[in-house]
Amino acid sequence: MDKKGSPDKVAEGRRKANSMIVPAPGSEDRSVNFKISEGNASSSETQPPRKQPQKLSRNRRARSLYGVSPCCQFGPKGTILDNSSSFLSTGFCPPLPHEKAYDYDFGRDMKHNLALIGSVAHGGIKQVRIHWLLDLVSMTTKKDGSLVYNYDKLDDLLLFLFEQELKPGFELMGSPSGYFNDFENKTQVYLWKDFIKDLGQHFVAEYGLSEVMTWNFETWNEPDCHDFDKVKMTVKGFLNYYDACSEGLKEASPLIKFGGPGAGCDRPGHNQYADGLLQHVVNGQNYFTGEKGVRIDFLSYHRKGDGFSKNILNGEIEIVNEIKKKYPSLANKPFYNDEADPLVGWSKDEDWRADATYAAMVAKVIGQHQNMILANQNSPIPNFTLLSNDNAFLSWFPHQFTQRTLTARFQMNNTNPPHVQFVRKPVHSVMSLLSLHGDQQLKANFTVEDNLSQRVRVQNDSDLGVLVTRHNYDGLGSPDSWQTTVMVYQSMDTKTDPQEISSVELSILLVPPNPNGTTVTVVGYSISNNLTSNPYAMWKNFGSPDFPSVSHFTSMRQAEGPTRFLNASFIDFNNPHTVKFNIRTPEVILLHFCANALQQPDQVTNLAVYNVTAGKVMITWSDSCVNTKCIWTYEVIFQLKYTRVMIRINDYDIISTSFYFTPPEEKDDFVEGTYRVRAVDYSGRTGVMSLPVKYGNF
User: Fold this and answer.
1) Domain range spanning residue 156?
2) Distance separating alpha carbons of residues 466 and 456, to the nearest angstrom
3) How far is the first Cα of the chain from the last one, in angstroms, to the nearest whole number?
4) Cα–Cα dist 524/1, whole Å
5) What is the pLDDT of residues 606-663, one digit of tens each?
6) Is residue 287 a contact partner of residue 244, using CB atoms and an 8 Å limit?
7) What gap in Å lies between CA 361 and CA 309, rounded to an integer?
8) Phi/psi at 659 (5° precision)
9) CATH number at residue 687
10) Residues 158 and 11 occupy one common structural domain
11) Are 568 and 20 contacting, i.e. CB atoms less than 8 angstroms apart?
12) Which residues are catalytic?
């Protein structure tokens, strides 16, 4: 982001103009033009209907029928923005042995990683789909033969997720204390149903039904891959297991949703489990009720790219067409691609995973799905619901940046005791940019000049694409406001050469609901392979040190991005405005248009300070109660213990909700004190300070 500067000073330089040009270095290879209209992208809603404003509790975590809610000390004065988009998910798998999954899932490194994932702006990632969760449950047998389950370790992980405002994608995968090993054994099948019922009832009692009913409970992951550990799982046993899961959850509450088959190995001739499940839910006999057919609330498949974005979409369409043909009654079920990664194999060392190449490809895949599936009146996938990457893993040496992760992990074994530090990769930052999108997709007429100087429409599957959304402000006396978001991406998938440059001209007619006296500010962000938003390039410039210094980490974090390159204001709403800029391969550019709000941002909440090592801390907070996405930066304020002076410690602007404080002295005395955070909006207005949090020994 930009270096720290007063938003008020920046505002003095804003131009009230109809045209602006933002040049990028290099020659222009092609000219692109697009216009934005105020009509929807299709005649039907392209996103789920907006939710009613959420009632918030004053308790930090409310365990009740009403679920788990963040604490808004001042409460929302308007509408909480709806982030019900289809791409807010990630996931990971613990390593072998899975009986020790707790050590990985709830280890210090993963907690650090999850805190950073939770810091994606505005809930840009909400779900973490985790394998082998049931191996976190232990079981004992009482004298009367009944089974007693201990959920403490599972609750540890879930509560930590909730503290980061994340929720689980819950695969019913694993065997408590290794007890269940044969799902053709009738006794075990009935005991499994009772266990799943007990699990569901525990969750409802602990976290609230309205929370649990939003979780995606899913079958054992990729059953046709035969990764069942020590469990005997034939096709028949898998169907018995499915019925037991379905009926157990239903007995806990019929509102809990359950789907599958979570299929990723279902190639022709090797799809006995996935296809067998669909055959069973349509025509089979319920193991417990004897009725024909079993419920399935969503269909989940894994279609990855093999290095090409188009393969993801084509793979989804292919399996949906097959389902329509063989099982027409399932054709309109919600469809999940909950492992939609560009390439199979999370640990593969790939340079493109380190920089904006990966980020731009993720934006491209999401843009293609929005334009070709969700906004398409004749969509080949009529109920597409979830698109998830599987990239919440922990990278390892010497591939800190180049594995399929959102963050780069540095295992600092040169200190006593050893510790870890993380750097956010561009793919993490692009999720923050995507979070700035609104809840209604708009039409964009996107054209390019061909060899005959004729303007032709840019196809939705091209390397250059656009996604335009709007947020309609419908509250009064709130920090919320009317917004339009334009994202332009240029991606050649995993390739970076040749580096094509496109000259883009945007024509947009701004129509805020109350134009009189309104000012619309546009802020432009970029994620590219320029050094200013490429911590991987920064690290390589330092010689790729195994153990970066404090100054190295500071420089890399200043380059985490996104980079802000544009800030201007408009007051004319009768004529279209033109914005011109260049975009490279790979790059994502996002323009965020915000009408001035009536009030400053609301209060930052849920401030937490985590120890990293001696003299280093990570601060995280929540933006869920700030009630605006038009955030220029957050100011992290520190008051050294036994002093009265409060200083801003982030000397560069940030829009994600985390910050590392690493003073050069590297002593605890220099990080012990009181921390506060407040938001600053595009107009330069500061919100109320968060509640103070003390760190250290006072």
Assistant:
1) 89-431
2) 15
3) 34
4) 11
5) 999 999 999 999 999 999 999 999 999 999 999 999 999 999 999 999 999 999 999 9
6) yes
7) 7
8) -155, 135
9) 2.60.40.10
10) no
11) yes
12) 222
